[in-house]
């Protein structure tokens, strides 16, 4: 643990204290201070704090009370409060020679180095009593990276006070800044020869011993510190760190608990708690505990590194990457962070980014076998099996007894088809003793090769090493499934659950088998039984949500997602699913609340920011959507997906120059990124920069000649130029490359523009004859027919869509409209279904009210249309329908007034010709 500046080290509190209620019993300020000292000796820090506050409340000029209160704040690491009380003590007359060094220490602990130099008077050059303050000023100079100024101050302090241990402590810190730990230890020993009980020198000695790999000696020194100052919480945490390294987690937790009694707000203590949780495999508890640390100190590197490790372990790779990027930015040579960041990027499917991240670690002379393993895994992902094997062989040479490395070597040789692969894996299995990774890889390889009997034999061999367990029974079930023996497979999975009722993989496979046997209720009951054994299991709740969605029980679906979110305050998956469902169903405000909850749970999680941005975008909240996506870009630098999201929001906000810049940045990262190219092409078309768009289309055609995208973009450009022949030719060429309904929809645009819609509609109808499940294509055809008043044909397609996807609001609304134009009584039935889905939506109310009028119930229709207009007062089509209903119900005067107001607006709407005709009729002279 390298020291450049000292951590705040509280003075020994030699104070005695008093009872909690003494202030209420009339004691004076001096008595309260005495009571506080007694409480401190008894370990009752909270009562001592209350007594000292009572003392200064009774006599705010009590300098001794102020000084003791400052020391207690200092001990609790509340440094700003400590500084304030020390200054008040000095103002009240406490000796400056005693209090100024304490003010300096409080400022140093806050990293306020310049304030130490500016606010504390430089001591007299020849006064030996000033040496301590001079030493602290030297430490401030070190904090400002001004080593020579520090060196000059310390030479002078040593000359005037050669027997002051504080000077030698500062000299040791200067030696550490010079990267000379041996000299630092000499200076510390000199300080301790002067004063063997000099607490801060002992503490730094312990730190040096710990850094030198001598934990037992360091622990002995730390215990000396606690004998001198039993309240020194930083020393307790140092002992906890040593205990964690030795896997003595119970001992570590005792030290942390003791530290928290003294410094309940200590971030380091709470971080250490989370580290212990993680080492005890309480991963989610560790994440929840660490969240409070990161909320208070979002840039604290140890917490960020632990956060990255936890999220990597939980499989939340984007969050892990966001944390680890911050660590690497703050400490570029942290080999562990580089290795884990590269591993995260690799698991995210970005081996090139992983290789670039790992390069500095591979170039370091200090890199270990772990770095070589990740390098080998990257090479495996890039299918460079020879290079992967070379890395794993180097790692094996460095750690010849490592089963993990031998396993990775076996994997790389397995990928190459090297006959030595199985020998490597079998060797690793033997080295692991009761471990299982190499055995598992052998079993999985046999299952993949459909060598099911061999896999069963390997499973039996593994059970001899470690006994029967849920994992082996689960693999046995997989082998029997491969052998088409569903009875034995089910029995195996049931046995896995019998051994461990909380073993989710077996429950999940059994549920899949239930669904395959068309027994969804059995699958549901299985997960409900699983939750009886493990009531807060997130996967089981999500599985029940999925089953509810399969059965179209939307209330149960949202209910399970809400339960999962409540049971797991930090979990994103249920919140993301719930918010996306609410967005799709139109409940955008509730979706926004859930998205904000997700961001509050994990402020640095890219998935949470992405969800929030998408929700804000759907709500039309462009400023906040743009802000969320900009944060996402910052969280994931060098990645294209956040840039695509940001550009989408910029386009929606009509910031085309900004979108262009963002998309160009994405293309600098990945020059052939098709999504970015097509979006940029669309931006150029909207900006009327058609020549630039055409250059981009030609570039796509050259880069990807077998894909239709470049020709489709060329067609869009020609359509914008109103060069319909060229547009049709481009779309037809794209269709020949990869036929699709979407390209035929674009052709329909050309035929509509050239007054030949029947040709485009026939092409779409022919396509749907062989691709009947393409709902999007069918919806486009139906909408075109509806606009052309081909109501019978439109209704036919909407009926098919409603059958394949019941409950779709747009389909129901348009189907009702098409049927009503044929005077088909089913129109009201479908309009009512739409209204039940969205009773407050103006366009749904409009359709229903219009149909009521058209079907002869003008009075009810009028009321419905009034409700629609109250919700959308500026909608011209609703106003036209309202005027029609007023006329139909006999109120011709109000109908005439509504029509006049509407037509005076000079807006275009469906039915405007009929509206003008009715107005003319109503204003005609009788």
Structure commentary:
It is a single chain. The chain has about 950 residues and is mainly α. Among the domains are: about 280-365, Serine Threonine Protein Phosphatase 5, Tetratricopeptide repeat; about 370-430, Serine Threonine Protein Phosphatase 5, Tetratricopeptide repeat (Alpha Horseshoe); about 840-925, Tetratricopeptide repeat domain (Serine Threonine Protein Phosphatase 5, Tetratricopeptide repeat), CATH 1.25.40. The chain has 53 helices and no strands. The chain is globular. About 45% of the residues are buried.
CATH topology of the domain at 838-926: Serine Threonine Protein Phosphatase 5, Tetratricopeptide repeat
Low-confidence stretches: 1-26, 401-435
- Oligomer state equals single chain
CATH superfamily of the domain at 838-926: Tetratricopeptide repeat domain
- For the termini, the CA-CA separation is 101 Å
The CATH class of the domain at 838-926: Mainly Alpha
Determine the fraction of residues in helical runs and give it as a percent range: over 70%
Strand content: under 5%
**In angstroms, what is the radius of gyration?**
37 Å
CATH architecture of the domain at 838-926, by name, is Alpha Horseshoe
Tell me about the largest β-sheet.
Answer: none
> What is the typical, i.e. mean, pLDDT?
85
3D shape: globular
Number of E-type strands = 0
What would you call the structural class?
A: mainly alpha
Distinct helical segment count = 53
